Automatic annotation (TrEMBL):
Keywords: NADP, Oxidoreductase. InterPro entries: Fungal_SecMetab_SDRs (IPR051468), NAD(P)-bd_dom_sf (IPR036291), Sc_DH/Rdtase_CS (IPR020904), SDR_fam (IPR002347). It comes from Apodospora peruviana. The lineage of its organism: Eukaryota, Fungi, Dikarya, Ascomycota, Pezizomycotina. Belongs to the short-chain dehydrogenases/reductases (SDR) family. This is Short-chain dehydrogenases/reductase. GO terms for molecular function: oxidoreductase activity. GO terms for cellular component: cytoplasm. SUPFAM superfamilies: NAD(P)-binding Rossmann-fold domains.
């Protein structure tokens, strides 16, 4: 039974990824969030699926103690290792704030959450990934972290874009070192999903300056992300994909 762990799964794309993965009766899904008991969507799913299919685990990506406790709990749940680690948790608190007006303390927190949080999550769960058969690490990212495409949308998510560009380098470099262990690493842009917190925050800009790019539903995004993950082989490790399977320039 393939195993999947998703961070940031209380709502939005994370919750939809959990729902999508549960469509396959062979999958075992571990859904994590800061407080799973307060996550109505997760609780609804937990009432529908038995514990051999869905397990809820508290995990706060901003807390090293919480991450390490979650990893210890998951190691007991999955003694044979974790096949697929999906790091989805993200933050975008200053979506349309220009660099001259950026709250630097908020920016520091965003960098800490995006980069340090990711390092802590991977450090904690890589031992479990190494024990598994599939050995895949999927990091949700954004096309806004593409340096090549940055000039196309100069006023859109300045701090978020910087954080995502750094995140892309982190996974690209780390993934290169993990390839020798047959661990597959991927970066995936899930598309513009207006129905999520981040997607809604950038909607005014997108509709004014990029009107031809239509938003997609969380369900379409999740289905695409899962397909890319399932199709990935070691030959494409370290790649930056769109949710539809096309590659995105760095």
């Amino acid at each position: 039974m393939p195993s999947f762990l998703i961070t940031g799964s209380s709502r939005g794309l994370g919750l939809t990824l959990v729902t999508e993965l549960l469509k396959d009766p062979e999958n075992k899904v571990i859904a994590t969030a800061r407080n799973t008991k307060a996550a109505e969507g997760l609780q609804t799913l937990a009432a529908k699926f038995p514990p051999d299919r869905l397990v809820l685990v508290d995990l706060d990506v901003s807390s090293q103690t919480s991450i390490e406790a979650a990893a210890a709990e998951v190691s007991r749940i999955l003694p044979d290792g974790l096949d697929n680690l999906i790091n989805n948790a993200g933050v975008n608190d200053q979506a349309l704030v220009p660099f001259e007006q950026v709250d630097l303390e908020a920016f520091r927190k965003e960098i800490d959450f995006t980069l340090v949080g990711t390092i802590l999550v991977l450090r904690a769960f890589l031992p479990l990934v190494r024990k598994s058969r599939t050995k895949k690490v999927l990091q949700l990212s954004s096309v806004l972290g593409s340096i090549e495409q940055a000039a196309w949308t100069p006023g859109l998510t300045p701090t978020y874009s910087v954080a995502k560009a750094a995140l892309n380098m982190l996974i690209r470099k780390w993934g290169a070192s993990l390839k020798s262990e047959a661990i597959i690493t991927l970066l995936i842009h899930p598309g513009w999903i207006k129905a999520t917190d981040i997607g809604y925050a950038i909607a005014p800009y997108m509709e004014k300056y990029v009107p031809n790019l239509k938003s997609i539903s969380p369900e379409e995004a999740a289905a695409g992300v899962v397909q890319v993950l399932n199709d990935a082989t070691l030959d494409v490790t370290g790649s930056f994909f769109n949710y539809d399977g096309t590659t995105i320039p760095w």
